[in-house]
Amino acid sequence: MRHRILAILALMVTHAAGCSEPLPQEGDLGVFVPEDLIQEEDDVQANYESEEVWTHLCSPTTETKLHWLYVGVQMFETTMEHQLPGLQVPGVTVDFYDFCDTKVHSLVTNEQAVGGFQILIDGDGFDGYLEYTQENYPLFRQFDKPFRQFVQIIKGRMFEGPLFEAPLTVVGQSSSRGYIQGTVYNWYDEKPLPGAVIEAEIGGKKAGEVWYLPDALPVPSQALKATEKTGAFFVVNLPPGQVLLRATLSDGRVFERPAKTWRLDSFPRKTITEVGIPVYPDQEFEVCDAYNCPEK
Q1: Domain range summary for the chain, segments of one domain joined by +
Q2: pLDDT digits over 192-249, tens only?
């Protein structure tokens, strides 16, 4: 069981919010997030076959309808001895980039491993990723929720050597290709989702090789056809650059997440792309949102 938990940790993207307390008001990021903010998710699916759409994921060059975006991040380190929640990591520089690789902000986690900032964005916001590393660790670039609404809370996670090296060996990852490890999860309660079929596309064509994490063995498997209980998946040996990930759920709903990959050897200690595919509320399926949860 110990080795199983460690393997799962190495392959999952960890997320922050919960149903009973969607905006933390004490501890962690509570001192940072305003109490009176209301968030609404845009569920419109874009057509990422158009290069123009990818450009719109960058920071806007003209300011129109503006609002404040509050961003908070907490960093954890997962080691063989410290699994969940892991060790809080102070003093980590976290850089925020848009899809054009323009740095929009940078912070350093404090003694509680927390950092935060606010920026003005237009009504459509932008999309991007956060980048973080520390000595002897790979470079992590994490894609999750787009920077479009009023609050963005992220938990970043770094892994001890064996926890990221082993999957790379199992899947036969090439040093000159891109590598993604990700999780499909419910935005409502942050729980991973089984039964999601993952596809990766570049320019409208399938790309890379998809692997999943089995329940029975903590080893990536290409024989599986969908995510299992951990919601964890891998897309390996991708051409570096823009990629669109698509998760098709067992009930037929489809959720997409644009991301980017880099050569595994583009950083001296490897470059890992982490991707979270959040499944947003849907009234048809009676899923409440994180700001209007029924009492349990």
Answers
A1: 2-42+59-285
A2: 999 999 999 999 999 999 999 999 887 899 999 999 998 999 999 999 999 999 999 9
Q: Which residues contact 120 (CB under 8 A, 6 or more apart)?
A: 63, 66, 67, 68, 69
Beta strand residue intervals within 109-150, DSSP E: 114-122, 128-132, 139-143
pLDDT digits (tens, 9 = 90+) for 54-77: 777 887 666 667 888 999 999 998
Contacts of 292 (CB under 8 A, 6+ apart): none
Cα torsion at 285, 44, 129, 4 (round to 10°)? 20
Nearest to 257 by CA among 235, 239, 272, 283: 235
- The CA dihedral of 111, 151, 190, 230, to the nearest 10 degrees, is -70
* Domain boundaries 2-42+59-285, corresponding CATH code: 2.60.40.10
Q: How far apart are CA 178 and CA 280, in angstroms?
A: 27
In the chain, the amino acid numbered 288 is C
CB neighbour list of residue 92: distance below 8 Å, 6 or more residues apart:
75, 108, 109, 113, 132, 134, 156
